[in-house]
Design brief:
Chain lengths: 494, 374, 445
């Protein structure tokens, strides 16, 4: 089992895509079993026994598991009963627990990943490439995945494992290659290397950390949510509860971190607070004003800043120039408009300011948002939201898909804002980020806030167990010596 | 930045020019294949098109086309396909003709009344599609196509002697009551041979200016464009997307209501069975050609009117005037392909350039750091 | 503590927010799902029961109102004739959209089918005409594929452009080819082709006559069945049989073969398909060109079966209606066939000036609405129940106050029906997930 590590944008995924024939290399060779090969498209790679489990699953929701598995390799066992038998056979021998006739859209994340692995095995792959397989899993699911992978290794398969989570890499890999800015910078033996050494190799210098130093929490409530309920129809038209009796308060200067496996209602909660969905019951109060049923625009004007989870869908107009993106979401506010009319000149001037202050790397404000890198896009969004002096900042996965440099800047800005008395609702799948930045932690599971924890003492594993519903209530860390010195005191919620 | 702007302009012009060239080539090939001289035909068109009576005809025709183009473009800017402009303007013109024929007020009231009725009816018919979209999730494309056909049925039911129309004994045509003189729009007289320029061109020009101003200078316009570019981002930014869809369909429909007005108020003064149909689809072609830009739509409308006008003269010269239909079809198809190619080229080039500039900047800083370290 | 802090370098989330086919949060409204694989599809016994019920209701309506044309063999065979082109257009749309390309250019491709079908048909025989019509449609499909797949033009824009182009071209060529020489001598003019020989048809000897006799007795149910059956077996054109076979073949190819699976995967998740070595462009091209061919068949059918000439504007928007029938059928051949039958029925009513029959069917609509209202009330959605009941009452009043429906309204029926069906069920329909979305090779990188 070979691990490939490197920070975001180091070229890991590109390398894997070349190995899998999805991209063509300019130069260089690939050898499998000592034999030199060239792949023109994924079909070639598959024929040579190379299979890939993509970071974003490559599954068609509206097809069954069986159909997804046999697609592209129909010649092997047809698309009918023989294929079904074969799938069950593979599934049983590796303990994957696959049901072939279920529609993929009805599967959870971990199940989908197992379908992806089965797809690869079905094609007789001897070399498996897994691109960031643990990014979407909670720690318990990660363990199950690693068990599966060890099973494969025992059968004599080669596994290439891409990750930037060093702890995992050290625990599971037999060999590690580190790449940075598109070149191999070294290799390491997991038995003798520490995460710190590996990390420095990866970034080439000391790493930033999301740690928050001093507490700035006040006792002035900024956002109060009480008894929030939301139902939404699912695909069958049946109304289901997606938010159930949500209640919390964020004070001025407090960062409330919300942990949870994706799809447990965090996105809906954000949309309810933003007014993109109208809650069925409950009261939302911002700085003493009831905004439970105010439209989104009103809420933004009243001081909610929003760094959305999916910036391409919710935060930017990709084909519009930067200065128009600066107006987006704040069209009714200074300096973007006067009365009903736009003030393009002022908006452009202010965009120049944001670009300079927030270090957005761009040749100018007339280029489209799409031409910026993810990190610079995110800096623009953060800059835009902070420019309107929000009272509450909703930051959903603020550093997702952002390079290390921009990540540190965004963390700094959140800390800075917090010092100035901002309330922050932070949602992240990155548990270290959550624990490092938050003053208070809450865990969301199936639309309910099931647990809360003190970020000063909790570990990602303990948080993870609450995220799967295994534990609830006040999470108390079982103290060990290593945790003796808490250096950040969390805001007291209860 | 100035340099980029110039290039952008160049890229913007490149697409329609490419499309026109393609149209010329294809049309020539078709003419040659059917045993006709292409260049002679183009020359005939060119020389006939610039005659003064042709110019007046083209301006008058372009007025109608321009309004149709605007109506479609309002939807396009929202990423809505109002294919129903056709039904909207016919129903609107019919209703306006009926109402105008029933009352006889002074011109200052009669004209606004007719125009407002037309806009309201057009807006209502388009608004139905908007409501179906936001309320029931029905694609506006299918809904407006169906509404076109339903409008046809309604008109053919009502446009019958004894219902809302009369039979003209002389021409054997069925039409609504002729509008009173107060409901006739003014005209500009030119030289007598060329005939008058219809006054409604003023309204069309005003509509174009309003379109430009609202879309690019107002908050409402920004919201509308936002929805067109990304519905999800618009919603997150605080635009009420559903309301915006209905509103823009209403605006598009109201604009469509104006499409029949030049014909009704300046030419026919009644709605008869021969009232021009199919202009809604011409509007789609023109909006595509003009890229939803008010100036571009004007050029497209003039071009279409020019082609229409000169097609008749071709017939006199031994060509088939239907060749213009081929030409128009080729122009539309190649212009959409050309725009897409140019757009993709422009985006790719910009991304490359941004990458290069940033890389150069990074090299510079790296060099400075090295120098500083030394 | 230190352990936690040192691993914090992993922060930053490795996921790129861009093109994510599987970001689960993108569709929050549908997050939790019931594990029913066969949602929205009825089992065969239930389907048969519904059919039987509908048949009984129709019989009852005929018997009560005495509008014999409701189930007459003439009406039914007319329905079949009108349903085939609509069904073929729908089938064309089905192929294209299952591969992820919206084909609103069907109308244009049908026009090409009518024109080229008639052009080759009058000079030779209907079979060669059919081939020419299909080829003409395929040409349109090829253009659409080039524009949408290769050049990435918006599918609807391209479709509209192709329809305009097809109109312009056929008008020009009709004038050149039908208005000159031999063709003109045989009755061709710029808007019409010379007549085409009849398409051979099947009439089962003896059976048709005896069915007709039974039908004329107007016995409850028996005569109705005889009328329907008679309509289906009398003067059945070979083209109709071929079209029916194409429906079965479509189902088989799309759902039972590897080719079909690949094609459908291109409409559901092209990036996933590409990652498995499927040549997405190839399948999209194949689907759209085949789609054009089917639409061309529909056009050729129109020119040769219900009439024997090409007529300008003959398609009369049937391409769009076909698309509506496809949506009505939830992107499946069976449902599409039912939709096409429904639209064909109203089309046929209008052609036969079936005001009284349409009027009788108002009663049927009343019955259906009452049933719907009862169901809604049973399901406790009172508002919709009351609304349905109110509609039923209004229709009943209309039914009782009049004794015919103006022909114009009959002609609008398919359109109104489409709107109503879509309005009532649009949220339950499931279109292919990547339908109408632009796809570029390698965009998943």
């Amino acid at each position: 089992m070979h691990a490939l590590v490197g920070e975001n944008g180091a070229g890991k995924s590109t390398l894997m895509k070349i190995l899998y024939g999805m991209q063509k290399p300019d130069e260089g060779t690939i050898a499998i079993d000592g034999e030199q090969v060239t792949f023109h498209h994924p079909g070639d790679a598959i024929a040579r026994g190379v299979g890939m489990v993509h970071q974003h699953f490559m599954l068609a929701d509206n097809l069954t598991v069986l159909e997804n598995v046999v697609l592209g390799s129909e010649k092997l066992h047809g698309i009918g009963a023989k294929a079904r038998t074969k799938i069950l056979e593979i599934s049983d021998s590796y303990g994957l627990g696959i049901r072939p006739d279920v529609l993929v859209e009805n599967l959870g994340v971990a199940d989908r990943q197992r379908v992806e692995i089965l797809k690869v095995l079905y094609r007789g792959a001897r070399t498996l490439i897994l691109d960031e397989p643990t990014a979407v899993l909670v720690p318990q699911e990660v363990d199950a995945l690693f068990d599966n992978l060890r099973g494969l290794k025992a059968e004599g398969l080669t596994v290439i494992f891409i990750s930037h989570k060093l702890g995992e890499v050290l625990s599971v890999a037999d060999e590690i290659t580190v790449i940075r800015r598109g070149t191999t910078v070294g290799s390491a033996d997991p038995k003798t290397t520490t995460t710190k050494q590996l990390a420095e190799l990866m970034v080439g210098s000391e790493l930033p950390s999301p740690e928050t130093r001093e507490s700035t929490v006040t006792d002035v409530p900024m956002l109060t949510v009480g008894g929030l309920r939301l139902t939404a129809p699912d695909a069958d038209g049946v109304e289901r509860m997606v938010l159930d009796d949500i209640a919390f308060t964020i004070h001025k200067g407090e960062v409330l971190g919300l942990a949870g496996v994706e799809g447990n209602g965090q996105a809906e909660l954000v949309e309810a607070i933003m007014g993109m969905r109208d809650a069925d019951a409950g009261i939302i109060t911002l700085d003493g004003a009831d905004i439970s049923h105010a439209p989104t625009r009103k809420r933004r004007e009243n001081g909610i800043g929003y760094v959305p989870e999916d910036r391409h869908r919710h935060g930017l107009l990709l084909e519009a120039p930067l200065w128009e993106n600066r107006i987006l979401g704040h069209v009714t506010e200074e300096p973007n408009s006067k009365g009903a009319l736009l003030d393009n000149a002022a908006a452009r001037r202010d965009t120049e300011r944001i670009v300079a202050e927030y270090d957005v790397r761009t040749p100018g404000i007339d280029v489209t948002a799409a031409s910026l890198s993810g990190g610079n896009q995110q800096k623009l969004i953060v800059g835009r939201e902070m420019s309107h002096r929000p009272k509450l900042l909703i930051a959903a996965h603020p550093t997702r898909g952002v390079d290390v440099g921009a990540q540190a800047q965004i963390w700094d800005q959140i800390r800075e804002a917090r010092r100035e008395g901002l309330a922050v609702l932070l949602i992240s799948a990155d548990l270290d980020e959550l624990i490092g930045l938050s003053d208070t932690l809450r865990v969301m599971y199936r639309g309910r806030l099931v647990a809360d924890a003190d970020p000063a003492t909790i570990t990602p594993e303990e948080l993870g167990s609450a995220m799967t519903g295994a534990s609830s209530g006040r999470l108390e860390h079982v103290a060990t010596d290593a945790d003796a010195a808490p250096d950040a005191d969390g805001g007291e919620e209860r | 930045m100035k340099k980029i702007d110039k290039e952008r302009l160049l890229l913007g012009i490149a697409a329609p020019v490419l499309a026109l060239l393609a149209a010329f080539v294809v049309t020539s090939l078709v003419l040659l294949a059917t045993g006709k001289q292409p260049f002679d035909a183009f020359q005939i068109m060119g020389s006939y098109g610039v005659k003064s009576d042709s110019q007046v005809y083209i301006l008058n025709k372009a007025t109608t086309y321009y309004l149709a183009g605007l109506a479609v473009a309002v939807g396009f800017r929202m990423n809505l396909f109002n294919i129903g402009v056709d039904g909207q303007y016919r129903l609107a013109a019919f209703a306006a003709a009926v109402v105008g024929g029933m009352v006889n007020l002074p011109g200052i009231l009669e004209l606004p009344l007719i125009i407002i009725v037309a806009m309201l009816v057009g807006a209502m018919w388009a608004g139905l599609a908007g409501l179906l979209k936001v309320g029931r999730g029905v694609s506006e494309v299918i809904a407006t196509i169906m509404l076109n056909a339903i409008a046809t049925a309604i008109i053919s039911y009502l446009l019958q002697p004894g219902r809302l129309a009369h039979l003209d004994a002389n021409t054997n045509s069925v039409h609504t009551t002729v509008l009173p003189k107060s409901g006739w729009f003014f005209t500009f007289t030119t030289n007598p041979a060329a005939g008058p320029i219809e006054g409604f061109i003023v309204v069309a020009a005003l509509a174009g200016v309003a379109y430009w101003f609202v879309l690019s200078r107002t908050r409402f316009g920004f919201d509308l464009r936002t929805v067109g570019q990304s519905e999800s981002a618009a919603q997150a930014s605080g635009v009420n997307v559903k309301r915006m869809i209905v509103t823009s369909m209403l605006v598009s429909g109201a604009c469509a209501g104006l499409v029949g007005m030049p014909t009704l108020l300046n030419e026919s003064h009644q709605y008869a069975t021969d009232f021009p149909a199919g202009i809604g689809f011409t509007g789609i072609a023109i909006a595509l050609l003009g890229r939803n830009n008010p100036g571009g739509i004007a050029v497209g409308a003039l071009l279409w009117a020019f082609l229409d006008r000169t097609s008749n003269w071709l017939e006199f010269n031994g060509y088939d005037k239907e060749i213009v239909g081929v030409m128009q079809g080729v122009i539309v198809l190649s212009v959409v392909v050309a725009y897409e190619l140019v757009r993709r080229y422009g985006l790719g080039r910009q991304q490359r350039r941004v990458g290069e500039q940033l890389a150069a900047a990074a090299r510079n800083t790296a060099k400075q750091e090295q120098e500083a370290a030394i | 503590m230190t352990a936690v802090r040192s691993t914090s370098v992993e922060g930053g989330g490795g996921r790129r927010a861009g093109m994510s086919a599987t970001t689960t949060t993108a569709v929050p409204a549908t997050a939790p799902k019931a594990p029913q694989a066969k949602r929205g599809r009825l089992s065969y016994p239930v389907l048969l029961l519904i059919f039987a019920g509908a048949l009984l209701a129709v019989c009852a309506v005929r018997a009560i109102t005495g509008a014999q044309d409701v189930t007459s063999s003439g009406q039914i065979s007319g329905m079949l004739q009108m349903a085939v082109p609509i069904g073929l257009a729908g089938l064309a749309g089905l192929w294209s959209e299952r591969a992820g390309v919206v084909n609103i250019g069907l109308e244009g491709m049908m026009i090409l089918g009518t024109f080229f079908g008639a052009w080759a048909g009058w000079q030779t025989n209907p079979w060669i005409g059919l081939v020419a019509g299909i080829l003409g449609g395929m040409l349109g499909g090829l253009l659409h594929a080039v524009a949408t797949v290769t050049f990435g033009v918006d599918h609807i824009v391209s479709g509209v452009a192709i329809t305009l182009l097809a109109q312009g071209t056929t008008q020009y060529l009709a004038k050149r080819w039908f208005n000159t020489g031999h063709a003109a001598a045989l009755g061709g003019n710029p808007k019409q082709s010379p007549p085409i020989k009849s398409v051979p048809s099947i009439t089962v000897p003896g059976l048709s006559d005896s069915l007709l006799t039974i039908e004329h007795h107007h016995w409850f149910l028996v005569s109705d069945l005889a009328g329907i059956l008679g309509g289906l077996v009398t003067g059945l054109s070979y083209f109709t049989v071929l079209a029916a076979l194409l429906f079965a073949a479509t189902f088989f190819v799309l759902w039972r073969t590897a080719f079909g699976l690949r094609l459908r995967s291109c409409g559901e998740a092209p990036i996933a398909a590409e990652s498995l070595g499927v040549n997405v462009y190839f399948y999209k091209y194949a689907a759209v060109v085949l789609s054009g061919g089917l639409a061309g068949f529909g056009g050729a059918f129109l020119a040769m079966v219900p009439s024997h000439i090409y007529n300008e504007g003959q398609t009369g928007g049937r391409g769009y209606i076909g698309l509506a029938a496809m949506i009505f059928g939830n992107w499946r051949p069976g449902g599409l066939a039912m939709g096409a039958g429904l639209f064909g029925y109203t089309d046929s009513l209008q052609l036969r000036s079936g005001g009284p029959a349409a009027h009788a069917l108002l009663l049927l609509l009343v019955i259906l609405l009452v049933l719907l209202a009862a169901r809604k009330v049973y399901r406790k959605s009172y508002r919709q129940g009351v609304l349905s009941a109110a509609f039923a009452a209004l229709l009943l009043v209309w039914f009782l106050m009049t004794d015919t429906i103006p022909n114009e309204f009959v002609s609008a029926t398919p359109y109104v029906a489409t709107l109503l069906v879509l309005a009532l069920s649009a949220q339950r329909l499931r279109m292919p997930k990547a339908d109408g979305k632009p796809y570029r090779k390698g965009q998943g990188k």
